[in-house]
Write a structure and sequence with these properties.
Length: 441
């Protein structure tokens, strides 16, 4: 008989457990750890980079394969500094601001009446001159260096290249340009692990459309993006929308897709009605005509934009929080299991010889591992007893464990053990690739 404990999703220890698991098993390390670290910077370890790459590939394929009129871009991190004047970031971020230590919303002095955060009542930081853009200098001669900025949001290069994309493709409005890339922010209060970093990755779609169709597309992308996240989370019911009342300088309407069971902040992706703010701004500052002419109606207009801008690292963190479970398999014996979608799991299958000291089992297991490893990220493990090997794989979310035993030598079948149900079935070695493809892809 199995006793189940579903870990409470508002478990305050949950973050500590995730941070510890991430370090112990090689998902995420603190940046520059041997020098005492650097607040707001993290490195993704061997398992973390596999999981993050799986996630980014899913996003990229969903954007560019599922949706015919979306193309990709990989823009530079440093742009002409005028970009940040045109975008409003230089102007918007040099005011003295206070930041709420709890919800991280920022307010100008006259917006705070009671000395507490107007949104959640939290404690506020001292007022300070705020510029979240991370400055850098270009050039080698002291005194002649040019001030530039690491991009504060990844999307700006999409606006800069929108005409280049139009001129080099056969796209017509409505169409989208998507990008995954690093962004940098001098956050006043970096913290909560990957949630608020100074260097992080964003996945953005900028959808260019006729102004009269903004309502339709805004609603379309809101529901498309929520459905995409729901397809990946272990508990999709934990996802939902938050409607912003206080809007960023560029937004006319904004919703967040939230991970609502989060013990820390909830925001994962912003769906923003950017209108013509960006293209008009860049058109004015650069002197370039960024309008679009409809080839059929000959109407000339500045396209309006719906943006979906999500955090890769936050999604990564929320997926771990959502997938983490502790399950009592028999009295007093609890296993830790990451119930990650097999599509995201860093290792898809682990291959074990039942016994390490039986060369014929080890050779057969290595042969199977060798045949699978080019198609699936696999692990080979002959260390410790089978129970311990299962536990090691459960803890990192490996969906399938394949064990080679003496029957394998007779009938060329292996035991396949399912991570979530712990049920086992025999599968013919010759069918393993198609079995795993069907279950994982
Ligand atoms: N281009 C619009 C834009 O950048 P945003 O709401 O400031 O909008 C989009 O950022 C997403 O980027 C957020 O929903 C969040 O997931 C992620 N993000 C923002 N700041 C972050 C930080 N300091 N650390 C980690 N992720 C962050």
């Amino acid at each position: 008989m199995f006793f189940k404990i579903m870990t409470s999703k508002i478990d305050t220890n949950l973050m500590d457990k995730i941070v510890s698991l991430c370090k112990r098993r090689g998902f995420v390390f603190s940046g520059s750890e041997i020098y005492g670290g650097l607040q707001g910077f993290y490195d993704f370890g061997p398992l973390g980079v596999e999981m993050k790459n799986n996630l980014k590939k899913l996003w990229w394929d969903w954007m560019t394969k599922k949706h015919e009129s979306i193309v990709g871009l990989d823009g530079a991190i440093i742009t002409n500094p005028k970009v940040w004047e045109a975008s409003g970031h230089l102007k918007s971020f040099v005011d003295p601001l206070v930041e709420c230590k709890k919800c991280h919303h920022r307010f100008k002095g006259d917006e705070v009446i009671s000395g507490k955060c107007p949104d959640c009542g939290g404690e506020l930081t001292e007022p300070r001159l705020f510029n979240t853009l991370v400055p850098t200098q270009l050039g080698v001669i002291e005194g002649e260096k040019t001030q530039a900025y690491l991009r504060g949001e990844a999307c700006q290069t999409i606006y800069l290249d929108y005409k280049n994309v139009l001129n080099s493709t056969r796209l017509k409005i409505p169409f989208g340009i998507c990008q995954i890339g690093k962004a940098f922010r001098n956050e006043v209060t970096p913290g909560n692990f990957l949630f608020r970093q100074r260097e992080f990755e964003q996945w953005d779609l900028q959808w260019f459309c006729h102004p009269s169709e903004m309502d339709k597309w805004f609603e379309f992308w809101k529901s498309e993006r929520l459905a995409w996240y729901q397809s990946l989370f272990t508990h999709p019911e934990n996802l939902g929308f938050y409607q912003h009342e206080k809007l960023a300088h560029y937004a006319k309407k904004a919703y967040d897709i939230e991970y609502q069971a989060s013990p820390i902040g909830k925001e994962m992706e912003g769906i923003h009605w950017r209108g013509d703010f960006d293209l008009s701004g860049h058109s004015n500052f650069s002197g370039q005509d960024l309008s679009y002419t409809d080839s059929e109606t000959k109407e000339k207009f500045i396209p309006h934009i719906v943006e979906t801008s999500g955090g890769v690292d936050r999604t990564f963190l929320f997926l771990l929080l959502d997938a983490y479970d502790e399950e009592e398999v028999k009295e007093g014996d609890v296993r830790t299991v990451l119930r990650l979608s097999p599509k995201i799991a860093p290792i898809k299958a682990a291959v074990f010889p039942l016994m390490k000291n039986k060369p014929e089992l080890v050779a057969k297991a290595k042969e199977i591992y060798g045949n699978l490893k080019n198609d699936f990220r696999c692990d080979f493990d002959d260390n410790g007893n089978i129970g311990k090997r299962y536990r090691r794989q459960d803890e990192i979310g490996t969906p399938y464990c394949l064990t080679v035993d003496f029957d394998t030598l007779d009938n060329d079948t292996v035991t396949v053990r399912d991570r979530d149900s712990m049920e086992q079935e025999r599968v013919e070695v010759k069918n393993l690739k198609s079995y795993l493809t069907e279950k994982i892809c």
